Amino acid sequence: MIKLGFCIPNCTMGGVTRLILTMMNAPVDHNIEWSGIAIGSSYGFDESTAKQFLRYCPIYAVDDTPVYQNLVSIVPNACQQVIDDSDVINLWGYMRSSYELDTADWHRKPMLVVAHGQCKWTTMNVKFSINRFPSEVIPVSVSQKGIECFPKQIQDDVHVIYNGVDFTRCAPVKPLDIDSTLIGYIGRITRRKGVLDIADAVYKLGEGYRGLFVGHDGRDRDRVLRRFAEYGDSILISPIREDIGSILASLGCLVISSPFEGGPLVAIESWVAGCPVVSTA
Length: 281
Fold this sequence. Notes:
Elements: E1 2-8, H1 15-25, E2 32-39, H2 47-53, E3 59-61, E4 73-74, H3 78-85, E5 88-91, H4 99-103, E6 110-115, H5 120-130, E7 136-141, E8 159-160, E9 181-186, H6 195-205, E10 209-214, H7 221-229, E11 235-238, H8 244-250, E12 251-256, H9 265-273, E13 277-279
Parallel strand pairs: 1-2, 1-5, 2-3, 3-4, 6-7, 7-8, 9-10, 9-12, 10-11, 12-13
């Protein structure tokens, strides 16, 4: 049994946290035991996501806050706690050092380094992780293009493992009762994901069309909501929810408008649910 632990910046619901949960929920004997998750901050802390993680392993952090609602164990160094309890560690999402990251002993254990995308941001994440100098680097990419995010000297060693999905999430429970053609977006509601372009396009489609944005707020929440308000009742907003199949069954299509993505899980989930996808390249 291999003990695998994760060190990530926060416990918000996003692509990487959904991937971790998909692995944890997989009904297969993968010979992996989840040893713990270290989070760097309380930003975007999602109670539902945390409770799902806690079914499998503890969550650690350094600084306590009421936001955690007693779901997180406070330790002197969360990353070191995960390193000590794991056979292999996965460090992802960091591009800046901190006292916690700099004082953890990364050299002791092998590190699983995953390219979840294929852009400059992913390259910086991969570089930051490798520069912790673990005892061994296990390089993985979710796409062929993502291999280019690794240093040239180890690109031949990168294993490509394509994203998978939790099929049970994609089955509709109860489709929405909305008398309009819904154009959907599922993910982080922020300008960086192109959500304002979607809202503008839906508004221009005119009567009979509405945009449904499902997800958690980004750092520019107030500015995005002010822009959404300009479109009146043509824009609907819903918090993230687990019965994603019910959302997908209600959409005319799902739109992914990000300037760049790796292998977005929501696209695969949409295909599984039979929902058309309109996406940027």
